[in-house]
Amino acid sequence: MKNAFAAGNPQQRGVLIASFDEAILGLIDETDVYGFTDGQIQAYVDGILNSKPIIVEYEDNMVLSMPTSSRIGNGPGYEVKSNSGFCQSTAYVTIPTAYNAGSTNAWMFYTVSSPLSSWCIDVGLFYAYGTGGNAWRGFYTVGDTVSGSVISGLSAGSSVYFNAKIQSDGYLRFRVLDGTDFSITYYDLLYYVGSNKIYQSNGVFNRQITMTSNNGNFTNGSYISNAAFSNAYLYTTNGYSLVGTSNTDSTRCGAFGTTANNAATFVTVNSYSTWYAEDVSISF
Questions:
Q1: pTM for the whole thing?
Q2: Domains of the chain, with CATH numbers?
Q3: Which residues, including other chains, have CB under 8 Å from residue 229's CB and lie 6 or more apart?
């Protein structure tokens, strides 16, 4: 099998080689954080070598009392928004039970931004109807949503690992790995964000679970049950920390609705740990 470096034009091979170096450096911190075994480390490296990421260099396109966020969204959900100053965010994800009654999308993702620009990018997984039926797919959104292929290996209760890193060369690399076998890569994206003033020194990562409606119908019976993030960490170029009160925006952590007061109509926070883990259900 050819590895990822054998594909693409010379410029793209250079981007891939630089990203591999960044990933290996990041793996050192991630191993400290999660205590990866030698087998997991080898599987992680094999996964990087054999994955062929989507590379996007430029596009011209301009989500216990229940904790609540000040946000009003175009669909209800739950968020944990970091302060600025981070270059990477990682977390384990548990895939929820999902039902789409029609024209509804469920999302688990990061919004990556910086305080120097209004530009942002969403990267993650979403559940929606499309070619192949209702299924989970990787995606990125900058204005419009660009969907990856159906991920047939994902079902309710599956574990995946999110890794979003702003690299020193200006690319954001986002990978979704199997949570129990890091050699399996479900989605891999390299998107150039440096031209939009997102750097390793100022990155903001907003972790989100949301549902949206394509036709404005929030009472059609669609739902997700037990969508969960856990063991969420933030990284700087000098170290890492568990996501908590000291590195997040206190006004942007918790459940939100489509108006200032209706979050509880749609969102149930089954459990949460401030602010590195949450288990959330949303119903229309």
A1: 0.90
A2: 55-283 (2.60.120.1270)
A3: 80, 91, 92, 93, 94, 108, 162, 207, 209, 277, 278
